[in-house]
Structures are given as structure tokens and as C-alpha cells.
Specification:
two-stranded antiparallel sheet, 16 helices, mainly alpha, 2 domains
């Protein structure tokens, strides 16, 4: 009798025609419209921050894999490049180079490689780096350059508050939403991208173009983006209906800050999101609810980064209790 054993790799076992490299670079392509618009708005500083972030992430992944983990460094699979772009999209365009290096080291070294590398990290690496920088360098991470200034200069530009920051500060000072609205840009500016903020929250239109490309290429599904944005609209809408002078129109929450960037490109990360569509819906709703709770009742104007990381921690639990139907299983009775 043969004693040969069949070794089966861990699930999931569904075959996909696209390789990891193709998927990663597909997301990179989807981010190009947003990157192009951020360079148009902020000029050379945006290009410098993005390029420097990509190079730093690739360098740290190569060093850690080769000299600490003693294995081949596959930095051209696209994952380090994507992490570099997403990290850059979560910071101001005037962020000093040494802070970018620290963020890349934390994102790759702590957020990714400390867990074994691609496919093993429980938290989105770019968001790990972003939150670390926000806590460690709060002034630098909240000094937002005004859009459409001297775009050929890398010197310091005048800065201003983000729309979410203006809203938060006004409400804390006892102003009503109607009074604060006079200080905010038009909603069309939010959609096209003429507002202060990080590189990746400029243009809702550019981010939507990238999402449509990923849906067309079947890189992502609709479940996480729709449930996340839908839950934000629902929870913010309930508060707005209760008191429109204390809580702003829910559309404002969608078009400002990193809501669309987080919903389309970071919450949909294969490694750190649930595998089953029902689990994705739960995941998205949880992120949307936590984001609104932080924005409305918390100390930070923005909350999407914290919300995604919190729900990343629940993904193993969601995967445990939300599973696809097993083939060949018959209910008793």
C-alpha cells in the first residue's frame, strides 16, 4: 500500500488568471489618474514625495528580505511599489524626505515584513506607516499646502486646513454648519480636486476612474466600496436628518478626506480584507460606521485610516464565521 501523502497548500484554492504581479500593477495603473491630478495640483513636490516613497519602500523590502529574513527579495512583484504610492497618497506634498523614509520603514518593516511578507500581514502596510507618522509627527502630517500654488518649486508653500479640519474646528468653536459652510469650497471643487489635503484625496473623479478600471479588470469587486460608502451615507445621513445645523450633509463626508481613497484602494486589499462577499459587506459597513463615529465624535477630523486598521483586526474573525457553502455537505434531517 502506498504511503505517499498529498500536500495541500492553505486556502483559498480558487485559481485566477491574473498573477500577483499583474494585480499589483493593475492597481498601480488605476492610481495613475489620481497621481497625475495631484501632480497637476501640487506640482513637483507631489512627484518628489511619491517617487521618494516608492524608492524607500522598495529599498527597505530588499534589505529586510535579503539580510534579515535571508531569502530572495522579490521587489518587482509590485507590492512594495503599491505600498509606496499609497503611503505617499496619505501624506502632504510638503512632507520632509526624512519623515517619508521613517514612514516607509514602518510600513514595510513593521506593517509587512515582520509578519513574513506579502500575504501574511494582517494590517494594511501603507496605513500602518501613515498612522505611525500621524502620531509621531502631528504638525508635519497636518500642514496641508494650498492647491494650485507655485508647482515648480520644492520650497515650503503656504498651508491651510482641510475641509474636514475647517468643519471640526468650527464645530468645536460653537459655530453651526450653516456658518461653517461659507468657509468651505464648493462641492464641485471636492469632486474635481481643488482642496487642501493629502495627495490621494484631491480628485474624486480621478479616484472613480481608477475604480471603474479595477472593476472592469476584475481586480476588485463592488462589495467593499459600495458597503463602505453606503454605510457612511446612511449613518451620516441619519445624523444630518436629526440636526442639520450640527451634522453636515452626508455627501460632504464622501467627497472630502480619504473616504474614496480608503474605500477603493486600501479597504479592498486582498490580504487584509475578508474572502467571502458577505464578509466583505460586513467589513465595509464596519469601516463606514467607525469612520463617521471618529469624524463626528472623535478628536481627529479624519477617521478612515483608523477605521480600516480596526476592521483589519476583525478579518480573521469574519473569515471564521462567514464561510462559503461546502461542496458535498448535506444538512441532517
Amino acid at each position: 500500500m502506498s504511503t505517499n501523502l498529498l500536500t495541500v497548500s492553505p486556502s483559498p484554492h480558487v485559481h485566477h488568471q491574473q498573477s500577483t504581479r499583474q494585480i499589483m500593477f493593475g492597481v498601480v495603473l488605476a492610481l495613475l489618474p489620481a497621481l497625475g491630478f495631484s501632480v497637476y495640483v501640487f506640482g513637483l513636490p507631489a512627484l518628489f514625495v511619491t517617487t521618494f516613497s516608492i524608492m524607500a519602500c522598495m529599498f527597505f523590502e530588499w534589505v529586510i528580505a535579503k539580510y534579515l529574513l535571508k531569502r530572495e527579495a522579490n521587489i518587482m512583484d509590485g507590492s512594495a511599489i503599491l505600498t509606496g504610492i499609497l503611503l505617499a497618497f496619505n501624506v502632504p506634498s510638503n512632507l520632509p524626505w526624512y519623515i517619508i523614509i521613517i514612514g516607509a520603514l514602518v510600513a514595510i518593516g513593521i506593517g509587512k515584513m515582520s509578519f513574513g511578507g506579502l500575504g501574511n500581514n494582517p494590517f494594511n502596510p501603507a496605513l500602518v506607516g501613515r498612522v505611525f507618522l500621524l502620531i509621531s509627527f502631528p504638525v508635519a502630517m497636518t500642514s496641508w499646502p494650498e492647491p494650485m500654488q507655485d508647482r515648480l518649486s520644492l520650497v515650503d508653500a503656504s498651508t491651510g486646513a482641510t475641509p474636514l479640519g475647517i468643519l471640526k474646528e468650527g464645530l468645536d468653536q460653537g459655530q453651526t454648519v450653516s456658518q461653517i459652510s461659507d468657509q468651505l469650497p464648493a462641492y464641485s471643487d471636492f469632486f474635481w480636486g481643488l482642496q487642501s489635503g493629502s495627495l490621494g484625496e484631491m480628485s474624486a473623479f480621478a479616484l472613480l476612474l481608477g475604480l471603474l478600471f479595477m472593476l472592469y479588470k476584475r481586480i476588485v469587486t463592488w462589495h467593499v466600496p459600495v458597503s463602505l460608502i453606503g454605510s457612511m451615507l446612511m449613518f451620516a445621513g441619519i445624523l444630518w436628518l436629526i440636526n442639520p445645523e450640527l451634522y453636515i450633509n452626508p455627501l460632504f463626508h464622501i467627497l472630502t478626506g480619504g473616504a474614496l481613497l480608503g474605500a477603493f484602494y486600501m479597504a479592498t486589499d486582498y490580504v487584509t480584507s475578508p474572502m467571502h462577499p458577505r464578509g466583505m459587506l460586513i467589513f465595509g459597513v464596519g469601516i463606514g460606521l467607525i469612520t463617521i463615529l471618529i469624524r463626528v465624535f472623535g478628536g481627529y477630523p479624519e477617521g478612515i485610516s483608523f477605521a480600516i486598521l480596526i476592521m483589519n483586526g476583525f478579518v480573521p474573525l469574519i473569515n471564521r464565521y462567514v464561510k462559503p457553502k461546502r461542496f458535498g455537505v448535506v444538512k441532517n434531517g
